[in-house]
Specification:
With 271 residues, the protein is mainly α. Helix content is 67%, strand content 0%.
Length: 271
């Protein structure tokens, strides 16, 4: 719908509501005077009832969820109360002339109920009006909630992208016992030298107190010590783990010494 028709529709609605309020204002003024309100209070009384109806209608359009349900109940309750007061005003012609000593109904219980209704509406307007205004002021539109959720999700995604996933280090597993035949005797020295010169992974500086005081041994020295230590060992006892414990060396060097010793024993048996 274009802007001009909308404007005309709103103006027409305001006019109809204004005329309806004027008709209801007459009835509620007379009822207020009947229950004991003075001249000023009688003039203001219609604003208490119909004014809260307008406030509840605005709150119904603004609020959502349970708050909207509450605003609808307030709107329905005060609409019904205004209808009852207008009905009583039309049912009792004597109210049209005004007077504070008249009754709203000939039956006493009905009169008591109507007087209770008329006198409790101002108090209810204070309570329900304050509650609706507080709900409207603290209401957060749905688009703001969605924007907040999108901003939060975007911040979390940015954080996840900026933080690289940590890759767990694979545990160091001891190499399986080699099932290959022992290398020739002339390649023993080359294998030992290659094992000693293999690059080691940097793990940071080791404190002085934790450093090994044993001097670094060459492959030939390790092989010589290995011959002396394993001279009385059987072939089955000649394992890399046993050599490592006896020589107190690295597993890689222990395997090299084991392979060299097995090669020497194989050559000796062949001879």
């Amino acid at each position: 719908m274009r802007r001009l028709p909308k404007t005309l529709l709103v103006l027409a609605l305001v006019g109809v509501v204004g005329m309806a309020f004027r008709v209801s204002w007459n009835a509620q003024r007379d009822v207020a005077a009947t229950v004991g309100a003075d001249g000023t209070a009688s003039l203001l009384y219609p604003f208490v009832v119909d004014g809260l109806m307008a406030l509840a209608l605005v709150a119904t359009l603004v609020l959502t969820g349970q708050d909207r349900v509450t605003a609808r109940w307030v709107l329905a309750g005060y609409t019904a109360a205004s209808l009852v007061l207008n009905y009583v005003h039309g049912l009792v012609p004597a109210l049209h002339t005004g007077g504070s000593r008249m009754v709203l109904a000939e039956w006493a219980p009905a009169n008591w109920a109507l007087v209770l209704l008329a006198t409790s509406l101002p108090v209810g307007s204070i309570f329900f009006g304050s509650d609706l205004v507080a709900k409207v002021l603290h209401h957060r539109p749905a688009n703001q909630d969605e924007s907040l959720v999108m901003l939060t999700n975007q911040s979390v995604s940015d954080l996840q992208e900026s933080t690289p996933p940590s890759v767990p280090e694979s545990p160091v597993r001891p190499a399986l016992e080699s099932a290959d035949p022992p290398p020739p005797a002339d390649s023993i020295g080359q294998v030992a030298a290659a094992a000693v010169q293999a690059p080691r992974r940097a793990t940071g500086r080791v404190p002085v107190a934790a450093r090994n005081p044993r001097p670094i041994r060459t492959p030939e020295q390790l092989l010589t010590e290995g011959r002396e230590v394993t001279a009385a060992w059987s072939d089955d006892a000649l394992t890399a783990e046993a050599i490592r414990k006896e020589l107190r060396t690295a597993p890689a060097k222990a395997r090299v010494v084991r392979d060299a010793l097995k090669a020497e024993r194989g050559l000796a048996d062949a001879a």
